UniProtKB/TrEMBL annotation:
Location of the DUF6594 domain: 14-283
Name of the featured protein: DUF6594 domain-containing protein
Superkingdom, taxonomy of origin: Eukaryota
This protein's record includes keyword Transmembrane helix: yes
Keywords: Membrane, Transmembrane, Transmembrane helix
Source organism of this protein record: Zopfia rhizophila CBS 207.26
Transmembrane segments: 216-239, 246-265, 271-288
InterPro entries xref list: DUF6594
């Protein structure tokens, strides 16, 4: 579907790939190198354990020494800093080395913590990246190093690195909206609707914005959210049998919990709270309805 190349001024390879990531941030996918990062932390940790042991031994020896000011190193930083006057800077050297190693270790630890929170790339964006790497604008052999297979390829979709993360993930939509967006855009292309659109000046390809389809799903879920409570009240009002009413309450509670799971990103606790509140409203309506009095109810 590519009609024009907005990156024609970039040479093929890393420059053009980087420019593509710039105009489409969702394709900013990189390896987290979890094993290497963990190995690096393990080496730092082992080095610090060794340095800590040496420092404790040196501190004990200096505190028992009668030479110069060594016994005061643990009491006053000034004397430790001026330990060159005593002709022995071993403890000071260990402290300074530990300080630098700790700084590197803490930075690596914090970075690893942040990296582990990055989500996996969206399958749609990963497929786009695989197709882009084999377009004529990118060239058939644009990337030919060992990193060329990190994202997989158009012929081997599943051969991408399993530790890929994305720096700019797509907003997490509810299951229903995600399914509609994927199916709707795919069917629009299959039906040939793309022939009526022009390529984007930014991306250089013909495409549909998922924001438009998400607006439609938003209206659908909003209407459904307002109709379910109204429908339950109307049905409960028309039914006079108590067993039937109890069954209707149970059925609508199951329906509302299913809708919350499919049409929203509600947590389990939120689904439980909303379902319980919805059930309470129905019970209150049934208990206050005149047709539900013991004299008129059919048990």
């Amino acid at each position: 579907m590519t009609s024009n190349d907005p990156l024609r001024d970039r040479i093929m390879g890393y420059p053009k790939l980087a420019a593509q990531i710039e105009i489409r941030p969702e394709t900013a996918m990189f390896r987290r190198f979890g094993a290497l990062n963990a190995e690096n932390l393990l080496y730092y940790q082992a080095e610090l354990v060794q340095l800590e042991k040496l420092l404790r031994e040196c501190q004990l020896a200096d505190s028992l020494s009668s030479k110069g000011r060594k016994s005061k190193y643990a009491l006053n930083w000034y004397w430790l800093r001026e330990s060159r006057a005593d002709g022995d800077t071993r403890q000071l050297d260990l402290v300074l080395r530990i300080r630098e190693t700790l700084r590197l270790y803490n930075e690596a630890l914090i970075q690893q913590c942040q990296i582990l929170t990055y989500p996996e790339p969206d399958q749609w964006d990963l497929t786009y990246m695989q197709n882009f790497l084999q377009t004529k604008e990118m060239g058939p052999f644009a990337l030919n190093g060992p990193d060329a297979t990190i994202w997989g390829s158009a012929t081997e979709r599943k051969k991408y690195s399993p530790d890929l993360v994305t720096l700019c993930p797509r907003p997490k939509e509810d299951p229903f909206s995600g399914w509609v967006v994927e199916k709707a855009i795919t069917n629009l292309f299959r039906c040939g609707c793309a022939r009526f659109k022009k390529p984007s000046r930014v991306h250089g390809v013909i495409g549909y914005e998922d924001a438009t389809i998400l607006k439609i799903t938003y209206w659908i879920t909003s209407i459904l959210a307002s109709l379910i409570p109204i429908a339950s009240i109307i049905i409960l009002y028309c039914v006079h049998s108590m067993p039937a009413r109890l069954g209707i309450i149970g059925g609508f509670n199951v329906l509302i919990s299913i809708c919350l799971s499919a049409f929203t990103n509600a947590k389990r606790s939120e689904v439980f709270a909303v379902t319980a509140a919805f059930a309470a409203v129905q019970v209150v309506f049934v208990s206050t309805d005149r047709d539900c009095s013991p004299r008129n109810a059919s048990v």
